[in-house]
Write a structure and sequence with these properties.
The protein is mainly β. The chain contains one helix and nine strands. Strands 4-5-6-9-8-7 form a six-stranded antiparallel beta barrel. It has a two-stranded antiparallel sheet with strand order 1-2.
């Protein structure tokens, strides 16, 4: 059994924690200032509570829950989203393997999270992302 940590009633594997930080997560899925479903190039896939992402801003690493994702980006649930236009490095540790990508914050909702667009991803990581999305769609 692997060790877990808990904060605010949420659990995540200890190996997915960075710098001892964990975000409290709202239960509702709200994305403000984001394109409507009709305006999106790719449909979103809601994620189960076990999908987490490590995002790095300068030297600070933070682990947050992924609310939803698609091939173009992700909504990261965090009570402290960063400003629109901020560049981030992301790391997903999922059954398909580690997925690394560069990203930019495109929209944010104070105390709830931020919509992030992928800007650079290697082909192997892109393939793992497609596999992850396929697996999540099968669980619907």
């Amino acid at each position: 059994m692997r060790e877990t940590f808990q904060r605010d009633g949420l659990q995540a594997p200890n190996s997915e924690r960075a710098n001892g930080q964990m975000d409290a997560l709202p239960e509702t899925e709200i994305v403000a200032d984001a394109p409507s479903a009709e305006d999106r190039r790719y449909p979103r896939v809601s994620t189960p509570s076990g999908v987490w992402v490590q995002w790095q801003l300068d030297e600070q690493r933070i682990v947050s829950r992924v609310r939803n994702l698609n091939v173009a980006g992700v909504f990261i649930a965090t009570p402290c989203p960063v400003e629109i236009g901020t560049k981030l490095r992301l790391l997903f540790s999922v059954p398909e393997g580690e997925i690394r990508t560069q990203a930019i914050v495109r929209n944010m909702r104070p105390r709830e999270g931020m919509g992030v667009e992928f800007t650079s991803m290697d082909e192997p990581d892109s393939q793992k992302l497609l596999q992850l999305i396929g697996r999540l769609l099968e669980k619907r």
